[in-house]
Amino acid sequence: QVQLVESGGGLVQAGGSLGLSCAASGRSFSNYRMGWFRQAPGKEREFVAAINWTGGSTSYSDSVKGRFTISRDNAKNMVYLQMNSLKAEDTAVYYCAARLINSEYRYWGQGTQVTVSS
What we know:
Blueprint: E1 2-7, E2 10-13, E3 18-26, E4 33-39, E5 46-51, E6 58-60, E7 68-73, E8 78-83, E9 92-99, E10 107-108, E11 112-117
Parallel strand pairs: 2-11
Antiparallel strand pairs: 1-3, 3-8, 4-5, 4-9, 5-6, 7-8, 9-10, 9-11
């Protein structure tokens, strides 16, 4: 089992940058594939980015590809999401999530609010 705590959200102007962090506690963090999701008001939660256990493979939604970068540091039990060229439509609560291979995302953080002003 793993516990996740996000941080780094806040208010930023359109075109700016923001970095999110996700601290994981529990055993065998490096066994987990990690992802970032977001949920805007009145919308369903959507996938943003994911990273495999080594950090060597990443994937992104089309809406953030080229602007966001996911990374991880297994020695520190941390996952990061660097967000550049932010747009108003990136405003949402961002969640960190973890899953084991061949399973769904089972562990979720409490979320951190990102607000982009236009």
